[in-house]
C-alpha cells in the first residue's frame, strides 16, 4: 500500500463528507460525530496506526499537507478516543505539536483547503501543555476570530461556537498554565485554585453543543 493510501484511510474516515455545500444542520451533525462519542466508537481499528506514529513509522506522511494533517489526527485525536482516562491520551501531544508547527513553517497549513482541515490542524496548539501554551492559545483565538469573520452568514453559529471554545481554553491556560482536569489522570497535585475550578464540574471538553445544533440536526431526521 502506498504512503498516500496509508494516510488517505485516516483522512477519509475523519472527513467522510464534503461540507462545502452543506447547510448548517450537516455541519452540526459532523461536530457531534467528531466530539460527542460517535467517532470514538469506531477508532479501535486505528490503534496500530497510533503506535506506529508514536514510533516514527508514519513520518513519511509529512510529505504532503493532507498527509501531515492525517498524522496530526492520529497523534492528537485518536489517542483521546482510544485511551481516554489514561496518560496515553495525552502522551502524543508534543509530537503532534512539533509536526503542526513544522507545517506552519513549510506552507502545509496554508495549503489546506477547508476550514475543518484547518480546525483539526490547530488542535495540537490547543492541547499540548508547555511553557508557550498561552502564546499558542492566543494564536488559535486569532485564527478562530478570522474564521468566524470569513464564514458564510448561515454557518456563523458553528464558528461562533468554536471561537467560544477557543476563548475558554485560552482563559483556562492563562489562569492555570495547564488543564487541571488532567491532574488526576497524570498523577499531578492540584492547587487550591484548581480544586475549586474542578469542583464546578464544568469542563470545556465535555460541554454540549448549543441547543440550536440539536434542533437543526433533529430537523433533518
Automatic annotation (TrEMBL):
Protein name stated in the entry: DUF924 domain-containing protein
Species this chain originates from: Microvirga lotononidis
Amino acid at each position: 500500500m502506498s504512503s498516500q493510501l496509508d494516510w488517505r484511510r485516516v483522512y477519509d474516515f475523519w472527513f467522510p463528507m464534503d461540507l462545502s455545500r452543506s447547510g448548517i444542520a450537516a455541519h452540526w451533525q459532523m461536530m457531534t460525530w467528531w466530539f460527542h462519542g460517535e467517532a470514538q466508537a469506531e477508532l479501535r481499528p486505528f490503534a496500530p496506526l497510533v503506535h506506529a506514529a508514536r514510533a516514527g513509522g508514519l513520518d513519511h506522511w509529512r510529505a504532503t499537507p493532507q498527509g501531515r494533517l492525517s498524522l496530526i489526527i492520529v497523534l492528537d485525536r485518536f489517542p483521546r478516543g482510544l485511551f481516554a482516562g489514561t496518560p496515553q491520551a495525552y502522551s502524543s501531544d508534543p509530537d503532534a505539536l512539533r509536526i503542526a508547527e513544522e507545517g506552519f513553517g513549510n506552507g502545509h497549513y496554508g495549503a489546506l483547503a477547508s476550514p475543518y482541515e484547518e480546525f483539526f490542524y490547530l488542535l495540537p496548539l490547543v492541547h499540548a501543555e508547555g511553557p508557550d501554551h498561552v502564546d499558542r492559545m492566543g494564536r488559535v483565538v486569532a485564527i478562530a476570530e478570522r474564521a468566524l469573520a470569513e464564514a458564510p452568514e448561515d454557518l456563523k453559529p458553528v464558528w461562533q461556537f468554536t471561537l467560544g471554545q477557543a476563548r475558554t481554553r485560552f482563559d483556562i491556560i492563562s489562569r492555570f498554565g495547564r488543564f487541571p482536569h488532567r491532574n488526576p489522570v497524570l498523577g499531578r497535585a492540584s492547587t487550591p485554585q484548581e480544586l475549586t475550578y474542578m469542583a464546578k464540574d464544568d469542563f470545556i471538553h465535555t460541554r454540549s453543543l448549543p441547543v440550536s445544533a440539536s434542533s437543526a440536526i433533529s430537523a433533518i431526521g
